[in-house]
Amino acid sequence: MHVAVIGAGAIGSTVAAFLHKTGIDVTLIGRSNQVEAIREKGLKISGVRGEEVFQVPVDTHLREEFPLVIFATKTQDISDACRSNYDFLEHSVILTTQNGVQADNIISGHIDKIKIISSIVMFGATYVKEAEVVFNFEGNWIMGKPYVPNDMILEDISKILLKAFSVVVTDDIVGMKWLKLFVNFNNCIPALIGKSMQETFADIDLCRLSVQLLKEGVNIVNRAKIDLASLPDFSVDRIYGLCKMPEDQAASIMNKTLTTLSKEPLYGSILQSIMRKKKSEIEFINGEVDVLSKQIGRRAPLNHKVVDCVNKVEQTGKFFTVDEIKKEFNL
Asked: Which of 40, 151, 250, 280 gives 20 to 30 Å between its CA and that of 183?
């Protein structure tokens, strides 16, 4: 199968590199500066699978039709990517990889819903600079059809991607994406102070903030009667368990979990965007809960505030100090 990956950031580059290594015909679509760097130096991936430079074909946009197109842009960039490549997407199967729950809805405004496969990326990667990515940790690539039942096309695609990654097919991709939203809830806090996940969550007070954001978010989703579905290696009960236990106990678990995710410094997706001076996906993570709360006539003041604070960092280019965050959130 000839595969295109649109988005040469952390996940897109990692996916393209290791599919290419298995012998799959892959083209990576990126911005002009990324394309130029990869053509000049190759695509360097280091981390859990060692260090290697891949000679992956790259381009700035699609120039032909591909049976499978993997969208690895940020959620906020999906529409632009669709418009820029629309002439060659009509007959393609589209696989989304974005955090949050809105990617499929956005892309369905451009692409027939029957052609969309949704996925959850449970492995982690960090974008260092153009043509250089760290593959931080392994994890499942979970996929399923969000609008129609799974079919043989999905099965065939999963078998191809299984050559490079651990792939799991599910009949409840939507419920799983809502649970994954809460797995990504922690990304906002490193983005506030400009530090790695390990440095951020070594501070137990910031772990307490993570727990408070989580409890508020889960409460809103439950009131909206949205069903969460367990991920293969992450049960819904883990989230509900954290929400039910005393805050200090939950914060201690956050501390132990988030400081040991990776040997290399791990920067959340929101901070990675800010470091690249790009608009982050905060509106599609914590902001999703804020919007949902208003739709059901409730309030989510903590998640609303954290979105505002991340937006302030994006606009000013200045991170908060840890003490400022503690004061802002009464920690």
From this structure: 151
